[in-house]
Design goal:
Blueprint (H helix, E strand, L loop, with lengths): L3 E8 L8 E8 L2 E6 L8 E3 L4 E4 L1 E3 L22 E6 L14 H8 L15 H8 L7 E7 H9 L8 H16 L4 E5 L10 H13 L3 E5 L7 H15 L2 E4 L13 H13 L4 E5 L4 E5 L13 H8 L2 H12 L8 H5 L4 E6 L7 E2 H8 L3 H11 L4 E6 L3 H9 L3 E3 L13 H16 L5 H8 L1 H7 L15 E4 L20 E6 L2 E5 L2 E2 L13
Parallel strand pairs: 1-4, 1-5, 6-7, 7-8, 8-9, 9-10, 10-11, 11-12, 12-17
Antiparallel strand pairs: 1-2, 2-3, 5-18, 13-16, 14-15, 14-16, 18-19, 19-20, 20-21
């Protein structure tokens, strides 16, 4: 007798191939038979008129802290995710040194919505072991962050590594990859990653390649320097042989709209040369990040406390405002890309500023918006997050349509308000770009959420609906699919994901979460 039998469904197997009718049988945590099945099962689900797919894999999100919270994030299951990848954009919870621990916790707090993280580890192996003590709703795979490694070695200093520091960073990276990290991520607009050289990134990517892992990058520019930044990422693949993933690919700011055509062509040419280069993308035209991203990189040299001290200085404030007003910046100037009207504060420790644009706050108070922006950072002690409206819907569609793009969320969970992408990305792709606009076929879209990210990460036993694979499964009512999350109501859950199984256990039944925690910490190669 099987433990679980899903009958009469239309199988979309994650390979991109044509769907076919079949039954799917599960024993324990493994798919054991696909076809016409007449043997009995302890539990049977009738999927007549519905799709059966592998569970979705979010290759890029920021769920790092929520795995330590009491409810363990069950809402992620409701858009079909059964595995998520944390440690992106150069920001991971490990490794840590005793000297860095408190400063790193303070730096990460806004990204993690002030959620408590124990930080009672040093090595990446110790961190994963700590996560394993929690009851997880879905599987977690991790990347080790370049910013974290750099902070361990050189703090938040705005300078290149010494040879000794580079060697130490390579050793920390190698140790983390051996412990089971699936790759190495960078955030090259965020301190301290922004202080790195190209030579440093090449040296670290060689370690990644030696371990058969991936290098994912929030590249140095997604705006005026976008083409050059994509070129840098491709050169990493070319010079080291590493598998490269360009994170949440976009062209930010009206003057840069359309550059996606060129960057996608560059990726296609790299692939044609045999380089393993991809990008990921979320289906929205707004981004989300820490509000301190409005500042030039030098403002955060030395860490958060050093930044706050600079904000208290009238002379330094004048320099910061001049840098933001510079129409030809040599850094990723969010003000130049969108203006204050395009910056919507979602979460702030000074609550009166939340759920408003910076322009609205300044108008209401009758103050200069540049001075007000700095005041908000100072008053909140850096605990402010924002959504930034600066992308073109046409560019988003182009990136999603690319055969080399993977669907992601880049989502941050929040105790207050976040971005709807965290709750609706996959269903939005299926509804908008498959059902409505026919930009993708159904098999193509499912492949971008399942088999493609699994192959990129090197997760050999998930992402495809095949015998012998782990039983992360979805039963989807395609006609009922609808993403309900909006910028105003960001946590509204999706319709149409009827059943979810994680490691063979049904955790969503008829569209409702069950109090079952079947997720696991995944370690590469184990």
């Amino acid at each position: 007798m099987y433990d679980l039998l899903i009958q009469n469904g239309l199988v979309v197997d994650g390979t991109g191939d044509v769907p076919y009718p079949a039954d799917v049988a599960v024993t324990g945590d493994t798919i054991v038979k696909i076809g016409e099945i007449r043997e009995p099962a302890a539990r049977t689900i009738d999927a007549r008129g519905r799709l059966v797919t592998p569970g979705f894999i979010d290759i890029h999100c920021h769920s790092d802290a929520i795995v330590f919270q009491p409810d363990k994030n069950p809402t992620r299951l409701r858009q079909g995710f059964t595995t998520e990848v944390v440690g992106n954009c150069g920001i991971s919870c490990a490794p840590l040194t005793d000297e860095l621990r408190e400063r790193w916790a303070a730096y990460c707090a806004p990204f993690f919505s002030e959620m408590e993280v124990p930080y009672n580890w040093n090595s990446y192996d110790q961190y994963l072991t700590e996560v394993e003590k929690n009851r997880l709703c879905l599987n977690m795979a991790g990347l080790v962050g370049h910013g974290t490694v750099r902070a361990c070695v050189a703090g938040f200093e705005d300078r290149p590594f010494t040879p000794e520091e580079l060697a130490r960073a390579q050793a920390l990276l190698a140790d983390s990859l051996q412990a089971g990290a699936f790759g190495f991520s960078s955030g090259l607009i965020y301190p301290p990653g922004v202080y790195s050289t190209r030579e440093e990134m090449l040296a670290l990517a060689r370690v990644v390649q030696q371990h058969g892992a991936i290098y994912t990058s929030h590249i140095r520019s997604e705006s005026y320097g976008l083409i050059e930044a994509v070129g840098e990422a491709i050169r990493v693949a070319e010079e080291t042989g590493a598998s490269v993933e360009i994170s949440h690919h976009k062209a930010a700011g009206r003057p840069n709209h359309g550059k996606i055509r060129e960057t996608l062509r560059m990726i296609a040419e790299a692939r044609a040369k045999g380089l393993n280069v991809n990008c990921d993308v979320y289906p929205y035209d707004a981004a989300s990040t820490n509000f301190n991203s409005i500042l030039p990189p030098w403002a955060l040299a030395g860490g958060v406390e050093a930044m706050l001290e600079r904000l208290r200085s009238p002379e330094t404030r004048a320099k910061l405002i001049a840098a933001m007003k510079d129409q030809h910046p040599d850094w990723e100037s969010f003000y130049q890309l969108t203006g204050w009207e395009g910056m919507y504060i979602t979460e702030c420790s000074v609550e009166k500023y939340a759920d408003r644009t910076l322009a609205e706050i300044a108008r209401t108070e009758g103050v200069d918006p540049f001075e007000k922006a700095l005041d908000i950072l100072l008053e909140s002690r850096n605990h402010t997050m924002m959504i930034v409206f600066f992308m073109s819907p046409e560019d988003v569609s182009r990136a999603i349509a690319s055969p080399f793009s993977i669907i992601c969320t880049d989502g941050f969970p929040s105790r207050k308000k976040s971005h709807p992408r965290y709750y609706g990305s996959c269903v939005r792709v299926l509804e908008k770009y498959v059902k409505e606009e026919h930009l993708l076929s159904l098999p193509q879209a499912v492949h971008k959420m399942t088999g493609m990210p699994a192959a990129k990460l090197g997760i050999a036993d998930r992402g495809l609906l095949r015998e012998g694979m782990k039983a992360d499964l979805l039963v989807i009512d395609f006609a009922a699919l609808h993403d309900n999350a909006t910028y105003q109501n960001d946590t509204a859950l999706c319709d149409g994901i009827d059943y979810v199984a994680v490691n063979g256990q049904v955790v969503v039944e008829e569209g409702k979460n069950l109090p079952i925690y079947a997720g696991r910490v995944l370690r590469k190669g184990r």
